[in-house]
Amino acid sequence: MERISVTKNTGEKVLFDPKKLEGSLIRSGASESDAHNVTAIVCGNIVEGMSTHKIYRMAYDILKKRSGKVAGRYKLKKAIFEMGPTGYPFERLVSELIKLQGYETKSGIVINGSCIPHEVDVYARNENKSIFVECKFHNDGHKKSDVKVSLYVKSRFEDLRSKFALDESDNHVFEGWVVTNTRFTSDATQYGKCSGLKLISWDYPQTGNLRQLIDESGFHPITTMRTITKKEKEALLEKEIILCRQVVIKTEILRDFGISERRIKKIIQEAKDIIES
């Protein structure tokens, strides 16, 4: 296709790269054949200056017709934004992802440090390690967590570590984490590497980033689903039902909302498809 400029969310004009779109479709679970065909259709409908948002929406709509379960995963990044406006559901998601790694977790608790008490978004521990996690949820996809966040979290972590180390063996490991649904600035990641603070964002680090953790665990949020309305999603989040797998287990909540058995069957099937894809 001829070289066409498209508009990023920042307003910047860049040349459209079909391979980048195709790659994102494959990473979401689409077959190479489906990814290639969807990309070809999209390429035939792009016009000069079209926004990347519209392009990816177009790809999602085409993919949805071919494979609903893959489409649910494809919109994962947007689905996490839809978990807002508060950061509490995101904290619960992070807690579940860490729990899956063999830790006991608690969310939104106050823990005393050596100097002052600290509100900790997620506290996780097993026999050998304690983890103190700060979750930075942003409703704006352009918002980045900068080095000031890393410095602030590191200082809080050191206060907590100095207190907890008194009651643990010398071999017990302590870690401070910052997890965000967007990205970190380069200064923030550089400080994290230098100071030993673990940073996790949508696509950082290269292995073990947020997208990979969700895809590999099957812990996809309910906001990835198409069979549930926005109002129903908001009601479920208020009931602390944040994952597709919780919908499968707690079907009685759907009945409490007055959803018909026919729709419940479709909702459960979609949730299972997203989990298992």
Question: Top keywords for this entry?
Answer:
Trna Endonuclease, Chain: A, domain 1; DNA polymerase, domain 1; 277 residues; single chain; 49% helix; 5-stranded mixed β-sheet; alpha/beta; two-stranded antiparallel sheet; 13 helices
How is this structure best described in words?
With 277 residues, the protein is of the alpha/beta class. The chain has three domains: 5-74; 88-217, Trna Endonuclease, Chain: A, domain 1 (3-Layer(aba) Sandwich), CATH 3.40.1350.10; 220-276, Orthogonal Bundle (DNA polymerase, domain 1). The protein has 13 helices and nine strands. A hairpin with a 5-residue loop joins strand 1 (5-7) and strand 2 (13-15). The chain starts with a strand and ends with a helix. 31% of the residues are buried. The mean pLDDT is 91.
Mean pLDDT value: 91
The overall strand count is 9
Euclidean distance between termini CA atoms: 32 Å
Specify the CATH architecture of the largest domain. Answer: 3-Layer(aba) Sandwich
The run of helices and strands is EEHHHHHHEEEEHEEHEHHHHH
Q: Give the low-pLDDT segments.
A: none
CATH fold naming of the largest domain: Trna Endonuclease, Chain: A, domain 1
Q: Which structural class should the secondary elements be placed in?
A: alpha/beta
Count of spatially separate domains: 3
Provide the CATH top-level class of the largest domain.
Alpha Beta
Largest sheet, in brief, is:
5 strands, mixed
Radius of gyration: 21 Å
Q: How large is the count of helical segments?
A: 13
Please list the strands of the largest sheet in the order they lie side by side: 3-4-5-7-9
Q: State the share of residues found in helices, binned by percent.
A: 40-55%
Note the beta-strand portion.
15-25%
Q: Give the overall shape.
A: globular
